[in-house]
Design a protein that fits this description.
Rossmann fold, 3 domains, 9-stranded mixed sheet, 7-stranded mixed sheet, alpha/beta, flat
């Protein structure tokens, strides 16, 4: 978002137009809407800014719920912003640790600060980008205990704050409209840098948000690491230091689903592997937070399940299990993976709707789907994976409870 676009959105005309349009539905005829607004005499640049904002608000509802209707967003800011349900978990750590003042360092559009402020924690939020800082100021305006400042967090005196929260920028913005972004995978290229964040985190109760793909070898020994999944979508790795880290917890997987929380914890960073056995009657796909946190062994042990191939994150057993951590499938057939034979098999059984899953295989599901030329009334799930050392095609039926 450009500076002038933000100013236009804050104008009385911009605010009135935002309220009039509301969140744009996916099926809205945008061209017709633009023509209608232009015919009413609205400036073309204002119409473009308002429609972009309306689209972002519709997308933001998944993260912010009804709060999205009164917030302002930027494209990269929305993409990197924490879901409000996850930010609430972060804020609660500070509250439980008795910390009443937190610096939100790299606050983006203000999601973390919003959660902190709502728990009556005093928040000082810092953002290096001028427009993004202005957006955060707007979004946090209902809270008297939240303050936003445009600043480079590496130049601040952070000793005066009781607690710190970092969300290092993992995007490289470019282009005049700053609408293009590329993900940063090199921690040294984060802003602020990984080393700066880790050195600072060692001095204060600190939370740090990273992408869930952050390598295990990049996790300091003095941190509690928590991988978070929301309704099956793996969203982040949180590192916690000092008083906001839990005693006796080194790694955890947190699943937030349907408003409820489930967690698996470990007091060790040592990976526990599940035993390998023959393929059973059922295949189970663990939640990605369990897979990424290397806690699949703990989950398998608790549910008496096994792997059926080394390093392949599917579990198996002969018991039908209902668990929030698992998607379950009954194995109907175990076939050699041969495209022609598989196509004939599916045609013979009148299967036209096929969910395709893979692990340990280089297939591209959508390419395979075209090759199979599916026709029929039936439905099934195809899992292409290794069973033992063999490349197999498992024809399955999803379990329903």
């Amino acid at each position: 978002m450009e500076r002038q676009d933000f100013i236009s959105l804050l104008s009385p005309e911009g605010q009135a137009l935002l309220a009039e349009i509301g969140p744009i539905e996916a099926k809205t005829d945008v061209l017709k809407l633009v023509s209608s607004l232009r015919a009413k005499g609205h400036d073309a640049s204002l119409v473009a800014a308002v429609l972009t904002q309306a689209k972002l608000r519709r997308r933001a509802a998944a993260k912010f719920g009804p709060f999205a209707d009164r917030m302002i967003f930027t494209e990269p800011g929305l993409e990197q912003a924490s879901r409000l349900s996850v930010a609430a978990q972060h804020a609660n750590r500070f509250r439980q640790a008795g910390i009443s003042q937190v610096a939100d360092l790299g606050c983006g559009i203000g999601a973390e600060s919003l959660a902190l402020a709502s728990l009556e924690i005093e928040v000082k939020a810092f953002e290096i980008d001028e427009v993004t800082a202005a957006v955060a100021t707007y979004n946090l305006s209902p809270f008297e205990n939240a303050f936003v400042e445009q600043a480079d967090v590496t130049e601040l005196d952070l000793t005066k704050f009781d607690g710190l929260f970092f969300d290092p920028a993992r995007r490289e913005l470019g282009g005049p409209a700053r609408e293009r972004a590329s993900r940063k995978f090199d921690p040294a290229a984060f802003s602020p840098s990984f080393d700066f964040v880790m050195e600072t985190a060692a001095t204060k109760p600190t939370g740090v948000k990273f992408g869930p793909g952050h390598p295990h070898e990049g996790i300091p020994e003095n941190a509690e690491a928590q991988w978070v999944s929301v309704d099956g979508d793996l969203v982040e790795l949180g590192l916690w230091f000092g008083a906001v880290a839990r005693p006796g917890v080194k790694r955890s997987a947190l699943l937030i689903a349907g408003g409820t929380k489930h967690e698996i914890t470990s007091d060790s960073t040592t990976r526990l592997d599940a035993p390998v056995s023959e393929l059973g009657s059922y295949v189970y796909e663990p939640d990605n937070s369990v897979v990424r946190s290397h806690l699949i062994g703990q989950l398998a042990k608790s549910l008496q399940l096994n792997l059926f191939a080394p390093e392949i994150a599917y579990l198996t057993g002969d018991t039908k299990i209902d668990s929030p951590w698992l998607k379950g499938y009954e194995v109907l057939d175990n076939l050699v993976f041969d495209r022609k034979k598989l196509k004939a098999y599916l045609r013979e059984r009148d299967i036209g709707t096929l969910e395709i899953k893979k692990r340990g295989s280089d297939i591209v599901p959508e390419v395979l789907r075209k090759e199979l030329a599916l026709k029929g009334e039936g439905a099934a799930t195809l899992i292409v994976t290794r069973v033992g050392d063999a490349h197999r095609a498992l024809i399955c039926r999803a379990l329903k409870f």
